[in-house]
Design brief:
- Helix 2 links the parallel strand 1 and strand 2.
- The chain is α/β, with parallel strands linked by helices and 314 residues long.
- It is globular, with a radius of gyration of 19 Å.
- The protein folds into two domains: 143 residues, Aspartate/ornithine carbamoyltransferase (Rossmann fold), CATH 3.40.50; 151 residues, Rossmann fold.
- The chain is 39% helix and 14% strand.
- Helix 1 crosses helix 11, helix 1 packs parallel to helix 12 and helix 5 packs across helix 6.
- The strands form two sheets. The chain has a five-stranded parallel β-sheet. A four-stranded parallel β-sheet has the order 2-1-3-4, with helices on both faces.
């Protein structure tokens, strides 16, 4: 099945086959990361602009490194040093970038729907690197890629997403990806941050941490999204940690072979104890490493590359 999408906006719109295509392409590119010569020529001559209007470390660096590993030229946009500080709109900024002959835009923006908006205005591909509390598709793709490396298949695997689900774009993208991959997903956290209506998406909702973690094979922790909350949704960070933070005792409720995940940034001592974040059960740095291969796959496919051509390009 060829890849027919110019843009990568949301996991919700992807089919299971398309998710599998991204994973298969990422697996091919991951092999190149072990070589002494890590670059491939797949996007030589292309110019990719990272248009980030929110702070980012892992995602921004991963997209920049992914583009360079594919031999593309990369321009990273600094919103604080741009004409947006003078009132220029997102539309005008993006259309100016296109007029300068850029070949692709990777967009992170606080407004949900902004990547979709640009994709309808521009004639070049747009990849969503996170839009408000809507979606973060490449994060879910790298998360599920990491799980598949450990389990082979996610069908029937018990995955728990713990924390601030309400304001998390990572949670939404992972819910879509995991349910399409037939995982058994449970959301858990304070009722103010895990409203029961999430069950309409085909997942379970629980407020009992011990029963939710019992025999879980994956636990994905989410930080509290303070920047998106307009009011307090729990009394204090200390109270959240005392009730829902993952510590040694609560980790013992997991399946003995369970893995611990976190999309970052980690708030050590809040959603997870440092000892667990650095333990052998943690695959957090594996997620970061896999994020490079998955972003290489996303850039390659959206630029018009065919999945079967990925092997030839390396």
């Amino acid at each position: 099945m060829p890849w027919n999408r110019r843009n990568l906006i949301a996991i919700e719109e992807l089919s299971r086959a398309e998710i599998d295509q991204v994973h298969a392409t990422a697996a091919v590119f991951k092999k190149t990361l072990q070589r002494s010569m890590k670059k491939v020529l797949a996007l030589r001559g292309k110019t990719i602009v990272n248009l980030f209007f929110e702070p980012s470390t892992r995602t921004r660096m991963a997209f920049e490194m992914a583009a360079k590993r594919l031999s593309a030229d990369v321009i990273s946009f600094d919103a604080n040093a741009s004409s947006t500080t003078k009132g220029e709109t997102l539309r005008d900024t993006a259309q100016n970038i296109q007029a300068l002959n850029a070949d692709m835009i990777v967009l992170r923006h606080s407004a949900a729907g902004s990547p979709l908006y640009l994709s309808r205005l521009l004639n070049i591909p747009v990849i969503n690197a996170g839009d408000g509390a809507h979606e973060h598709p490449t994060q879910a793709l790298l998360d599920t890629f990491t799980m598949l490396e450990h389990f082979g298949s996610l069908k029937g695997r018990k995955v728990v997403i713990l924390g601030d689900v309400l304001f998390s774009r990572v949670a939404r993208s992972n819910i879509w990806a995991l349910t399409k991959l037939e995982a058994d997903v449970t959301l858990v956290g304070p009722s103010t941050l895990v409203p029961h209506w999430f069950s309409d998406l085909g997942v379970k909702v629980s407020y009992d941490l011990k029963s939710a973690l019992a025999d879980a094979e994956v636990v994905m922790l989410l930080r509290i999204q303070h920047e998106r909350q307009t009011s307090s949704h729990f009394p204090s960070l200390g109270e959240y940690t005392s009730m829902f933070g993952l510590n040694k005792t609560r980790a013992s409720w997991l399946n003995p072979k369970a893995i611990i995940m976190h999309p970052g940034p980690i708030n050590r001592g809040v959603e997870i104890d440092s000892d667990l974040a650095d333990s052998s059960r943690s695959v957090i740095l594996e997620q970061v490493h896999n994020g490079l291969a998955v972003r290489m796959a996303a850039l390659f496919l959206c630029s018009g590359g065919h999945p079967e051509a990925a092997s030839a390009s390396v």
